[in-house]
């Protein structure tokens, strides 16, 4: 969407700041809309069932969302560069098992998390290198690595599985514990989110990711090290998927060779629902995080309301289409408004 | 495996299906040359000669196990029992199979290949009750004995089916177990696997029948939810159950994936010890929850023995001791004497109940 904006904005000689503010406002409205939907959903459910926002209820909502928020944050940084990483589910699965395997041998929980993150980062590096240096479409590359990682996972793990009793007690405790109603997982999620958000907003290399996504060619001509940046985005996305794996292990205490299967679809849905456009260069990690919270909240609300679980996927899909439709609508509107302005000023 | 319908590895179906198409094409060519087609008529079960109940198990029998999915803990345990039984009878054990539990085309090509390799018996957990019939009938007409375990095909496509426990005893005993724990009072719910899982639905049907007994007058089954045998979804369904019904006192999860997810959730929530959980679970998965008081008791058939019984039955069929007709008896090693029931069914026995006292005796 902002690719279209950029084309119309750049040649315009007048007041780019005004146009920019206008676009920013639109984007903020987009995130605000998500917040409103989320609030309506939560308040509505609470009115129907007063235990929804009980201490346990809030804890569950936060716990359900935390891992998806982290992985979606990583995915968003890749999608912003006009690429995609489909291998996050497989990465999460293999990283979770690696940590579990190490821990069941009596390892240190912190080292286990580090193993997950490093393994994820290494896999991300492979993805990034293939995409940026191989000049192959990221959809195809990461579809390939999705299957390769899953295959290696199956061969390595076989029929073994990690269950909570194999893990140190304090590690499992992190999976559901925390001060008052704030689970540790949610705290980790918020910290990751805010750091990444700051980086993308205020740092040169972060802004360059947007530039690449808006127009790779223009970014390259402007002297942005596109390959390096894209590789870094993948590395980072992989590392967060790895972190997600370690947290998944702590939360569910249950990992086998199928863990994380189809998870990439949930992650990509969260990112898109959150307003990070697939055409690159627009959206924010906060939006992606909101998308993640919205999806997991819906999936928590529906069983509570007694809606048949078969409906959940259909509703998720509907939400996805609605989000894309809204994005498209906004993009067309913004483009029109900007064009009219340019004409007026020009 | 029957109770984990959505088992790990189904993302592989695409890749494997591709390979399977090729495999099928190859196997199909070979199979066509010896197609004496259907072994015909009613109950392919008793197709091969007459039984010789006093016969001995032949040495050197080649018996292949074809689980619904390889790399699945449940089948690995089952087949370890099968290996034990086959080798105890002086036979040669072999295990092959698809990495996806929904790759029926792949399973068909494995059956064809095993037939061509001249196996004496195939022990199979069927991914589909109908799709395998043609190739299984071809196998039987080529003098390969066919036994199903865990998940059956149509009765006329195999000679014997090793049933883990009758569906009725599984369904009823879980309600009995929970009833005792709850003192026969309070709301209960069921956390199942997929809504389409036949075995789950059959068990739930028997649970509802058991609940009609007057002693359960104060117990009410309020809801059945489906966690699709996925850890996350089972978590959320369990949360939903507990949230929507404050009077919920017990949950039955007749799926090994569902019960451990529900146990892990209860363990980390305020409901621990207040809401009873029972169902079908693996002792190794559940050990911790039984010991820390999250779960009082659960049940499952003895997986190793189920595999053993399948192995012994296959050997008995391949040696001509039985043909799969009702009323025939045979000795299954140290498991003792078994009788073939209706439609060639051999039932292992009632499910085993695991609790804090006995759980350490089991390792699977």
What is the topology?
The complex is a heterodimer of chains A (346) and B (364).
Chain A: H1 2-9, H2 16-48, H3 55-80, H4 88-104, H5 109-134, H6 138-157, E1 162-163, H7 169-176, H8 184-202, H9 204-214, H10 216-221, H11 226-252, E2 254-255, H12 263-273, H13 285-305, H14 310-345
Antiparallel strand pairs in A: 1-2
Helix pairs in contact in A: 1-14, 2-13, 2-14, 3-8, 3-9, 3-11, 3-12, 3-13, 4-5, 4-6, 4-11, 5-11, 7-11, 8-9, 9-11, 12-13, 12-14
Chain B: H1 13-33, E1 62-66, H2 73-88, E2 92-95, H3 104-116, E3 121-124, H4 133-141, E4 145-149, E5 160-163, H5 167-182, E6 186-192, H6 198-211, E7 219-226, H7 231-244, E8 248-253, H8 256-267, E9 276-279, H9 283-291, E10 297-300, H10 303-318, E11 329-331, E12 337-339, E13 345-347, E14 352-355
Parallel strand pairs in B: 1-2, 1-3, 3-4, 4-5, 5-13, 6-7, 6-8, 8-9
Antiparallel strand pairs in B: 10-14, 11-12
Helix pairs in contact in B: 1-3, 2-10, 3-4, 5-6, 7-8
Subcellular location (chain A): Cell membrane
InterPro entries (chain A): ABC_transp_permease (IPR001851)
Main location (chain A): membrane
Q: Could you explain how this protein is built, in words?
A:
The complex is a heterodimer of chains A (346) and B (364). Chain A is mainly alpha-helical. Chain A has a single domain (2-345), classed as ABC transporter involved in vitamin B12 uptake, BtuC, CATH 1.10.3470. Chain A is 78% helix and 1% strand. Chain A has a two-stranded antiparallel ribbon with strand order 1-2. In chain A, helix 3 packs antiparallel against helix 11 (226-252). The longest helix of chain A is centred in the last third of the chain and has 36 residues, at 310-345. The radius of gyration of chain A is 21 Å and the shape is globular. By secondary structure, chain B is α/β, with parallel strands linked by helices. Chain B folds into 2 domains: 54-165 and 303-349, Rossmann fold (3-Layer(aba) Sandwich); 167-300, Response regulator (Rossmann fold, 3-Layer(aba) Sandwich). Chain B contains 10 helices and 14 strands.
